[in-house]
Design goal:
By secondary structure, this protein is of the alpha+beta class. The protein has a domain at about 1-35 and about 70-135: Nucleoside diphosphate kinase-like domain (Alpha-Beta Plaits, 2-Layer Sandwich), CATH 3.30.70. The chain has helices at about 10-15, 20-30, 40-50, 60-65, 80-90, 100-105, 120-130; strands at about 1-10, 30-40, 70-75, 115. It has a four-stranded antiparallel sheet. About 30% of the residues are buried. Bound molecules: adenosine-3',5'-cyclic-monophosphate. Adenosine-3',5'-cyclic-monophosphate binds near residues 52, 61 and 91. Adenosine-3',5'-cyclic-monophosphate (CMP) binds near residues 61 and 91.
């Protein structure tokens, strides 16, 4: 089982897409094990985006991510990190494949609606940062019909 951190960014919240985005993950057969609406501090965003610190867009990225509330989700499932990234699509909404969240709702490289962890190490780091121990383990009955135990 993997757990991926997903953020609905301020543009996704302001455009009324929280439910639409969340429902893509639920409909796929992933389990939401953490969920919160929050205004992230600069300190949290600096840590989250530390890998981009030297990029020219770093300051504008932090400004954008601080501009309104975001929704943080912890999404769990078999191979969840890769599955979530496929559902999210390429960084630039204008180029992202139709059917993906960014491909269906975005036109921009920066206002791209969602963030998703890009690998196992990043996911562990980001989950610690945004949720700590604040996730909930629970049985989700429908999951028995998502992954075939015999396959
Ligand atoms: P995200 O998945 O949150 O990870 C890093 C973010 O930086 C990315 O989504 C975009 O929002 C943003 N980003 C990446 N490349 C650019 C760029 N060239 N100009 C502005 N923002 C960018």
């Amino acid at each position: 089982m993997e757990t991926s951190l997903v953020l609905v960014k301020p543009d996704g919240v302001q455009r009324g897409r929280i439910g639409t985005i969340l429902s893509r993950f639920e409909a796929k057969g992933l389990q939401v094990v953490g969920l919160k609406l929050m205004k992230p501090s600069r300190d949290l965003l600096e840590k989250h985006y530390a890998v981009h610190k030297e990029r020219p867009f770093f300051e504008s990225l932090l400004k954008f991510m601080s501009s309104g509330p975001v929704v943080a989700m912890a999404v769990r499932g078999e191979g969840a990190i890769g599955v979530v990234r496929n559902l999210v699509g390429a960084t630039n909404g204008a180029e992202a494949a139709p059917g993906t969240i960014r491909g269906d709702f975005g036109m921009s490289k920066s206002f791209n609606l969602v963030h998703a962890s890009d690998g196992a190490d990043t996911a562990a780091f980001e989950m610690g940062l945004w949720f700590g121990d604040d996730t909930i383990d629970y049985d989700l009955d429908g999951l028995g019909w998502v992954n075939d135990p015999e396959a």
